[in-house]
Amino acid sequence: MTTLDGHNVRGGLQSATDDALVVATSKSSQTISRGTIAKVSAKRKGHRGRNALIGLGVGATGGLVAGEIHDHGCPASGCAFIGKNAGKEVLTPLGALIGVTIGALLPTGGWHDIYRAK
Predict the structure, then answer these.
(1) CA–CA separation, 75 vs 77, rounded Å?
(2) What is the radius of gyration, based on Cα positions, of the chain?
(3) Cα separation of 98 and 56, whole Å?
(4) 26 CB-near residues (< 8 Å, 6+ apart)
(5) Rounded to an integer, what distance in angstroms lies between the CA atom of residue 104 and that of residue 50?
(6) What does the pLDDT look like over 19-44, one tens digit per residue?
């Protein structure tokens, strides 16, 4: 919550009346007059786990496709001492690792305004 004088208050809503909001902060409870409130925001739930799983699937698929393309150009005996399916065996888990990392690091949730003074 932001007040008209620019002061930020972070905490959970404890109660509300016609005249004020009571916010439970980490240290205590604060009563804030409604007339001094400029903005009230709430944090959305994050989806890092879901994004990591999506990244895992996309990365593994991309690695598998890249490995197939690499292996397709190899002769039947394999490419230079590394085997016939080396591209798929290396690039699939590498793609999955990259995908899950990117998925987990993507910012999710965020803040949205519930109330903004006119």
Answers:
(1) 5
(2) 26
(3) 8
(4) 10, 11
(5) 8
(6) 888 888 888 888 888 888 888 888 88
Longest dimension (CA), the chain: 81
What are phi and psi for residue 31, nearest 5 degrees? -100, 125
Residue 82 token pair: 């590394």
CB-based contacts of 78, cutoff 8 Å, min separation 6: 84, 86
Mean pLDDT on 105-110: 86
Query: Residue 49's CB: how many other CB atoms inside 10 A?
Result: 11
Segment holding 2, helix H or strand E: strand 2-3
Residue in 39, 41, 46 with CA at minimum distance from that of residue 12? 41
Residues in Cβ contact with 56 at an 8 Å cutoff, skipping those fewer than 6 apart: 96, 99, 100, 103
Predicted confidence band at 72 (pLDDT cuts at 50, 70, 90)? confident
In this structure, how many other beta carbons lie within 10 angstroms of the beta carbon of residue 106?
Answer: 13
**Average pLDDT of the chain, as a whole number:** 86
Residues 6+ apart with CB under 8 A from 62: 95, 99
